[in-house]
Amino acid sequence: MSERQGLDRRRLLTSAALGGATIVGASALGGLDADAAFAAPMPSLDPAVSASVFVDGRVAQIRRGVLDVVEADGTHKLIQLTNATSIWKLETVTAEAIEAGDGLYARGVEMPDGSVAADAVWVNIVNLYVTIRGIERSRLHLSHGRNALVGNIVEKRTTASFRGGALTSNLSQLRIGHHAQVLGAWRPADDSVDIARISVGH
Is-contact 137 172, C-beta < 8 A? Predict the structure, then answer.
């Protein structure tokens, strides 16, 4: 890539965050599925894309495609959503699915004004190590440390993996007492978790 092309790409990325133009695909910074949120950061293969940055916090306000996110230390960070932003909330969703009060983990490129142009956003994502305490048709009763937790089984969405095997929608092998890893989306309304995947025996 020539220097001129690199500069044009950078200008395009900057204008995208400010004006909603098409930007470099999200895959330039890494994967988009839920597992990618917990993967070690990977350097971009595209020299025109800056190192990715991450923001973790709660959504305080949403205005015209910009999320005002409050991080754990109380600082505010602005997250710019564009038409190239991938948004996960148990499944791939649009920006309209994000609500004030949601937890958010975002990956993107820092802009000159300090905001972040997001290529991927994971909303209310959780990665928990639990013990199964009860099994019902539509939910699991779990313990996470000393805390009790309800895990919602979502039709056509929840899958399981047993002893490193392939993902399956058949949860019949789950047993009370199993130790498991749960990847899913927290529900702020009732403090339960919609289960994307439960892994046992890994």
Answer: no
Question: Residues 39, 40, 42, CA angle at the centre, nearest 5°?
Answer: 110
116: β partners: 79, 110
Most distant CA pair in the chain: distance in Å?
Answer: 61
pTM (predicted TM-score): 0.74
Tell me the average confidence (pLDDT) per consecutive run of 10 residues in the chain, 202 residues long.
Answer: 38 35 43 67 52 88 94 94 89 92 89 90 91 96 92 95 93 96 90 94 78
Question: CB–CB of 105/125 below 8 Å?
Answer: yes
